[in-house]
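User: Could you check the structure of this?
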Amino acid sequence: MMMIKRFLMFLPLICVLGGCAAVGIEPDAPPPEPVATPSASGGGNGGLIDKWFGGNSTREGGSGGIAVNSFLWRASLDTMSFMPLKHSDPFGGVINYDWYTPPESPGERLKVTIYILDRQLRADGLRISVFRQTRTGSIWRSATIDPKTTRELENAILKRAREIRIASGVIK
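Assistant: Sure, the predicted structure tokens are below.
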């Protein structure tokens, strides 16, 4: 008797669920494949680099794919290309460089982190942190960095960003 009660209790649910299949609901068709268009940077197929760095964009930011100013982004990578790149996040605007030992001073090493804070090409849209260590025997110890060094790096990146912007033809 108990089993019949359970069956009768679930019978409406089974009928409703079974009836859904009879309605003829079909899944949506898959979206159409995107058509590749040549990029403005050389006839490519609009690859990942063009997507991130806006190969055919003419806005001030230079890109629709990254959340920071693409001129500052490219200038930062160009200016600091002598250092080993550790990590870069074009959507968050952070570029981390690994320790670099200048050939002229093997007892010293530098590490740089660049923060691009804005989509506009402005001096306050860039912040740089420079870390310096000196070696005493076999131990690396933190050392002070001259604020002038950070300022000079910022100025070099801003200058390169302006050059890239002028070369791209995006001038307001």
